[in-house]
Amino acid sequence: PGSLTARTRLLLVNAVYFKARWASEFNVSNTSEQPFHLEDGGRVPVPLMHQRTWAGYLRANGFEALDLPYRGDALSLLVLLPNQTVGLSTFEDTLSSALLNDVVARMEEQEVDV
Known about the structure:
Helices cover 15% and strands 36% of the residues. By secondary structure, it is of the alpha+beta class.
């Protein structure tokens, strides 16, 4: 907050687009409108994919973690989801490389609903 002012002349934004296939593809027919929960407690309807698959998973104190592999198993998407009592901003304050290393080390492969 406060970093963009009337004197701001240029804003450089960088985005990365990563296109790869999931190891376990999501079926388009399993996509439906579901509520997306906002940090302020509100909800907005968005199309959400769903599948039941095997993946790395961890339920920890204050959050859940899911590791979804891409085809070839060289890369994966690590998803961290804080629970409602912790909240996103509080959870962000706890993030560190040590926490991420611990999460990955403690994950177990299991069948999960994604």
